[in-house]
Amino acid sequence: MEEPDTDPPLVVVPGADPSARQLCFEWGPAEVLVCETRFGRKGGSRTHPVPSRSPSRPQSHPIPTPIPSQSRALTGCVADAAGAAPGSSRVFVVHRDQDIYIQTLRKLFNESHGIFMGLQRSEEELAGKSRKAQLVQVSKNYRSVIRACMEDMHQAAVSTRDPALQGQYSTQVSILSAMELIWNLCEILFVEAAAAGPLLLRLLDWVRLHVCDVDSMVREVLSSESPSKHKLFWNVVDVFVLQGRMDEARHLLSKEATANPTSMTMYKILDDLMKKMPMPSLGNTQTLTELELKWQHWHEECQRFLQDGTFASNPHMESICKILLGDEDAILEKKELMTTWYHFLVTRLLYSHPTVKPMELRFYAQSSMDMFLGGESSPEPLDMILMAAFEFEMHQVIKECSIVLSNWWFVAHLTDLLDHCKLLQSHNLYFGSNMREFLLLEYASGLFSHHSLWQLGVDYFDHCPEYGRVYLELHIERIPLSTEQKALKVLRICEQRQMHEQVRSVCKIMAMKALRNNRLGSALSWSIRAKDAAFATLISDRFLKDYCERGCFSDLDLIDNLGPSMLLSDRLTFLGKYREFHRLYGEKRFPEAARLLLTLMTAHIAPCSFWMTLLTDALPLLEQKEIIFSAEQTYELMRCLEDLTAGNVDKQKFQEDDVETTKVEMLRLALARNLARVIVKEGTVEGS
Amino acid sequence: QVSVINTVDTSHEDMIHDAQMDYYGTRLATCSSDRSVKIFDVRNGGQILIADLRGHEGPVWQVAWAHPMYGNILASCSYDRKVIIWKEENGTWEKTYEYTGHDSSVNSVCWAPHDYGLILACGSSDGAISLLSYTGDGQWEVKKISNAHTIGCNAVSWAPAVVPGSLIEQPSGQKPNYVKRFASGGCDNLVKIWKEEDSQWKEEQKLEAHSDWVRDVAWAPSIGLPTSTIASCSQDGRVFIWTCDDASGNSWSPKLLHKFNDVVWHVSWSITANILAVSGGDNKVTLWKESVDGLWACISDVNKGQGGVSAVPEGQQNEQ
User: Which segments carry the WD repeats (chain B) (predicted)?
Assistant: First the structure.
């Protein structure tokens, strides 16, 4: 067993009594139940001392780490002392993923589902560059969904009056922002796999997009009447330089030059240097070697100007020149304008090593972080994630994200994308099925606890080749079938995937529900769909019982149109045929009706308990003016009657029941009369 | 991330012994030493008391929900030696059957997979296991395995329904030939597996590894693999994971999950069987997950001294 490498995440279940109680734990379909109890009370005469330990440790729900080179500790809820009631009789329903209930995230889940499905179906025949471009586009789509969600969340935060909600929304916004930051970096390094040259440009874009703390300052200065007189003027120029926004920096500087003609010479030189700075380009216009040469020359030129003391009289400009030369101290002085170590990293690279190769990033990243934080503060989780990305430790990135983020959305989708980029396959995984599938299973399982998002979960399970199907089977059974529409939805999903057991189960549940609510027709159609013969028999019996009591059938449409499903159960067949008999009778097609009636008994389709009723039904046919039953048929009927009465000889009820005996008498009489008439008729030769 | 979404105040007047969600997570059943069984509607974070069922004359140890296709049915077992089956008819909960065939406390009840019909297994301190099968029209048939465990039986758990042999769909109307099995744990330190053969229940396997009373057994749900897995926990502080690779159920091998410092009372599997929860006497619940090479990843940092439990005041909540 591996030693865990970090402390288990502790989760406090507020309100659980920390006094001498133990915790009982049960799984619900989507949540877990925790209740305070004391074990040891049951189980016979052996007494066990009840351990009086304090406090009870409620159950935690874990975020199991997908990278198990270390085992993650998953426990540990601790009871919160506040609010403990004496003799607590509370049960805590604990849920693992509340994010799915946040309304504003709904769009995120829905739209990312669409992107996910598109990716799964995308053509893999595209190779090389076009495939890469396609994957980059997918990545960008995900990011724009995150940004749209951020925007919505921001709007919600701004427009709400409830401070608690506002806090919640704001937190969500920063989480989403961090997610986009990480995803963007992953896109640059992994999906696009930018090579030396373009890599720097991408990183610059990334920094510009995400370090926005200085935006308001920039706006303020630019919109003032005379920017060069603004006290933050030089800060803004520095910001532009640090972010490699040369044109904007030069533009601002020109204002300064106009305002201060004395520094015109200095300005012109600096401006020229900034203009000439060699930058990597996205097209293939220059090779790296060419760039490096040019850059070397330019660097030396800057060096000369600095050493000549050209900028000595203007500390601002001198500092800018130093920055251009990649002087780390000079850059670090502008810490507050960069706000993050990764901004510092990119600036450093821009001015000291613009042709940095992807694999070299890790060294610069580590040293940048160390220099920037300078031992004053320690890295936060976000920093560690970004560092892992710079080190190209994809698995580490995913693992750290899994721990920090509160739901699986991010890691599931990112990992799926990376898997499509064929970046994950060489790693050997610890936790069972491959990581992509693992994360997708966790994410989709979480969706199933939501009353409507579960439908998205179905698609995700579909794309998990190893366990997706069985997970779907287990989860879909737990969807509450609160309405007929929902049941039909679930059914359709199961039928499409040939999940026959689940189909049967759903139909049976719906049939039972309908039966309890006395909706016999509905119950019957559900049991037919379930192909449940036993239940169909039960319901048919109910129908027949109803008929006996009320003299008419309910749900005639259904019974009339049973078709081949009538054969599901004998009783059902009887019900259908019996109803047919009534129809024939109603249509006055007496001979056919008679024949059917007889068949029902002789072919034993009718249950014995019903024979009396059938024979009674025969009475009106026997009493008709015209003869309907032939001699043979009449003999059959008589035999049936005798079978019936013979079989009931011991039944007290039968003998004591006057009505029954009267009926039998009437039947015998009618049969005898019919027999007499028919013998005469059949004996008479018609015409000659 | 975990958050408490609902705190149900059951108003039980004494210790709660079991709480179970129904199949869909819409209802909660609880039972207590106050002899009552309560049912709550817990949809949308609410808690509406639907029923307060009285009928037991002693502490009620466990409740179990039957599969929804049979309607709303709940079983409860108690120190008073009775097993009561409750059913919801026309919106009200009533006792539908009471079984008094045991001579001492009934400790555990467990419904069989719905594919077998409505069958309840009950384990009792009198050492016997009863199987109550619903035969229709309010009638229940009882089969009893006497002396299943000497001194007493503490837990019963059914194996998931698996049709042996072919996997093609059975023609409609025919019942597939299920091989019914369940596991039980008792005061004889054994875990036993029972199999139904020719309508009789026979002891199929005896699993020996514990050195003290077995307190709970839990048969893991099936995720389509040919292996079967059972978790057992005991007075001896050990939790074993038993696996059997072949379909005939002949060779079970135990793996020690962990040895705890105190009695382990309860084990239960998540619905997709990927996590095992273990509730121990050391006031902690730990969750465990299996890795691809068959090792069980210890999820509780017991080794690092977390065994000494101390209350964490509210202010120190871990963000994670």
Answer: 9-50, 53-96, 207-242
